[in-house]
């Protein structure tokens, strides 16, 4: 029988290669095997490792082979000393990102805008001059692709800036642009989804703006608006961009007081999906559906309205589990997501630009950050990281604090700029920075790099199915990932993931599951992180096992 591979990933991590011909398992559950396997153990061998530009594994699209990295351009790296991050600054750091294992970038809005954040766009066909020129952006795109890194852009379809020429003309009821926005002769008298004002008076009429009076909503009931935004989409795809993160995707079309997830929004996105796939079948959209449950998320994905949706529920579960040291808060939510959402077509993350930083939410506890990252990067879906998360960047409260400059070194201004940064760097920049953590094998950065590269090397972590593994210790996160060859559904690789969420070693634990896609047999265990040896595992008739303890102790993370 062809040799199969099973991996056990811990606060250590182990690879569990099967015997060349697994020993048939008894029909009843065996007693636990606690003695280490005979040496020498099989070594960990990469299975369908990513080389160059991710192409997709086992029939899944390229994005399932991708670890994305969200960048606020203004805060990432300043190449010219003006205190503002720019395209050339990102290009200078592409080797860092490639070395980290990143294969996809999400750039927050890069278009001209009167606001620092860029979500109120004044020109969809140009770039923000603070960030450089269009040629600078094209160079960034080219250099990223050379390194096997795709680039997606934040696409703000829902609204424009009130300073956009379209809206300035739309103020005149006689202008052809008037109906590009949503107007009412009288105040309709209802508020928005969060109780906020959404109708604003202007020149004797009222216009609709769900987020802010300076961000008037576009009117997608007007075919001219749809045609224009499709033209915008084609412009960037033709330039070589690989896809888009769709801001506020659930709010695109209002059916009066139904201001989220309306039938009209679903219908528009289905049309938009067909359009951009016609331009580039390999392009992608990831929708921001904040607040939606898994059932609603699934409607967007399975009905070909979005390729992926950000999973805010999984994100909250990871943080809750890490903070409380209770794995069930994560595994319960992961199980629900895995059951409800289309297979692996969702995007888990830990935090993003609208939320307090990961380090801040986890009480400045580096060990909890490591635990959260370990869960994210070994679980199903397409993971997204937020720049600086990998070094423990802090920040909360005001949005600017969540989007502080990246911390590259202990030099002045954290190595972000030779000038005055647009926003002060974090208080721990002299400690939490790339230069310091790169030389520390126990740093947050070192763990992120290890986890991402292991994910890149092993198909089961990217496209494997998932079974929850029951542990008799609440602080032990445990799941089983198994990938299968599309041709005959044979097991390619399996990974048993164990993460100690506590601040102390875990001993006297046992693991089990009532069912998995593993074939019956006895399997050896080999390490991919940490050291072995570990006990054999015996898989019974329906992929089940019980009372399994691979090693005597699962250590806590070291700070």
Helix and strand layout, with pairings?
Blueprint: E1 5-9, E2 13-17, E3 68-71, H1 73-76, H2 87-92, H3 94-100, E4 104-107, H4 134-146, E5 150-155, H5 165-170, E6 183-184, E7 199-202, E8 205-208, H6 223-239, E9 243-246, H7 263-279, E10 284-287, H8 294-302, E11 308-311, H9 312-324, H10 328-340, E12 347-348, H11 358-361, H12 366-376, E13 384-386, H13 399-402, H14 434-438, H15 444-457, H16 459-463, E14 465-468, E15 470-471, E16 476-484, E17 491-500, E18 506-507, E19 511-513, E20 521-523, E21 526-529, E22 537-539, E23 545-548, E24 553-554
Parallel strand pairs: 1-17, 3-4, 3-13, 4-5, 5-9, 9-10, 10-11, 11-12
Antiparallel strand pairs: 1-2, 2-21, 6-8, 7-8, 14-16, 15-19, 16-17, 18-24, 19-23, 20-22
Helix pairs in contact: 6-7, 9-10, 9-12, 12-15
Task: Considering the chains and any ligands shown, give keywords for the structure.
single chain; 559 residues; alpha/beta; TIM Barrel; Oligo-1,6-glucosidase, domain 2; 3 domains; eight-stranded parallel β-sheet; six-stranded mixed β-sheet; 16 helices; 24 strands; 26% helix; disordered N terminus
Low-confidence stretches: 1-5, 7-39
- CATH hierarchy class name of the largest domain: Alpha Beta
Strand order of the largest sheet: 12-11-10-9-5-4-3-13
Q: What is the CATH T-level topology of the largest domain?
A: TIM Barrel
CATH-defined architecture of the largest domain? Alpha-Beta Barrel
| Number of helices in the DSSP assignment | 16
Kindly state the number of beta strands. 24
Strand fraction band?
Answer: 15-25%
Report the CATH superfamily of the largest domain. Answer: Glycosidases
The class by helix and strand makeup works out as alpha/beta
Gross morphology is globular
Helix content: 25-40%
Distance between the termini: 43 Å
Mean pLDDT: 92
Tell me the domain tally: 3
Largest sheet: 8 strands, parallel
What is the alpha-carbon Rg in Å? 25 Å
């Amino acid at each position: 029988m062809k040799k199969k591979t099973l991996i056990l990933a811990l606060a250590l991590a182990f690879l569990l290669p099967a015997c060349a011909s697994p020993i048939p398992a008894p029909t009843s559950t065996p007693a636990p095997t606690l003695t280490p396997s005979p040496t020498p153990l099989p070594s960990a061998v990469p299975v369908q490792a990513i080389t160059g530009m991710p192409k997709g594994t086992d029939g899944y699209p390229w994005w399932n082979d991708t670890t994305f990295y969200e960048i606020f351009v203004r805060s990432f790296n300043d190449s010219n000393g003006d205190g503002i991050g720019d395209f050339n600054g990102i290009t200078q750091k592409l080797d860092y990102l490639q070395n980290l294992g990143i294969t996809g970038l999400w750039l927050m809005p890069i278009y001209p805008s009167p606001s620092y954040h860029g979500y109120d766009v004044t020109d969809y066909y140009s770039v923000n001059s603070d960030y450089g020129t269009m040629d600078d952006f094209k160079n960034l795109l080219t250099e990223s692709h050379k390194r096997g890194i795709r680039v997606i852009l934040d696409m703000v379809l829902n609204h424009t800036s009130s300073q956009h020429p379209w809206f300035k003309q739309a103020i005149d009821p006689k202008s052809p642009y008037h109906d590009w926005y949503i107007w009412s002769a009288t105040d309709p008298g209802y508020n928005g989804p969060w109780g906020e004002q959404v109708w604003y008076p202007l020149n004797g009429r009222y216009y609709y703006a769900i987020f802010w009076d300076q961000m008037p909503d576009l009117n997608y009931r007007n075919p001219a608006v749809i045609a224009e935004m499709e033209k915008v989409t084609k412009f960037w795809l033709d330039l070589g961009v690989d896809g888009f993160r769709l801001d506020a995707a659930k709010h695109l079309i209002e059916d009066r007081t139904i201001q989220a997830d309306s039938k009209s929004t679903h219908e528009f996105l289905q049309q938009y999906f067909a359009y951009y796939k016609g331009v580039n079948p390999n392009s992608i959209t990831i929708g921001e559906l904040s607040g939606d449950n898994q059932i609603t998320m699934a409607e967007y994905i399975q009905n070909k309205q979005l390729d992926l949706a950000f999973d805010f529920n999984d994100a909250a579960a990871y943080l809750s589990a890490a903070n409380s040291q209770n794995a069930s808060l994560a595994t319960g939510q992961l199980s629900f997501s895995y059951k409800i959402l289309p297979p692996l077509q969702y995007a888990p993350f830990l935090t993003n630009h609208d939320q307090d930083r990961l380090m801040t939410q986890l009480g400045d506890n580096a060990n909890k950050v490591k635990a959260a990252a370990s869960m994210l990067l070994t679980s199903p879906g397409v993971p997204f990281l937020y720049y600086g998360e990998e070094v423990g960047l802090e920040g909360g409260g005001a949005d600017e604090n969540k989007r502080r400059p990246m911390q590259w070194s202990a030099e002045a201004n954290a190595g972000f700029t030779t000038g005055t940064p647009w926003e002060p760097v974090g208080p721990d920049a002299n400690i939490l920075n790339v230069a310091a953590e790169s030389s520390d094998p126990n740093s947050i950065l070192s763990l992120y790099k290890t986890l991402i590269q292991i994910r890149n090397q092993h198909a089961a972590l990217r496209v494997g199915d998932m079974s929850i593994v029951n542990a008799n210790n609440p602080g032990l996160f445990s799941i089983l990932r198994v990938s299968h060859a599309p041709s005959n559904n044979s097991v390619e690789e399996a990974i048993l993931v164990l993460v100690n969420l506590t601040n102390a070693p875990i001993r006297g634990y046992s693991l089990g599951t009532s069912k998995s896609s593993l074939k019956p047999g006895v399997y050896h265990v080999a390490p991919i992180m940490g050291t072995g040896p570990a006990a054999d595992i015996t898989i019974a008739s329906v992929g089940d096992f019980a009372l399994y303890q691979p090693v005597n102790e699962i250590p806590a993370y070291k700070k």
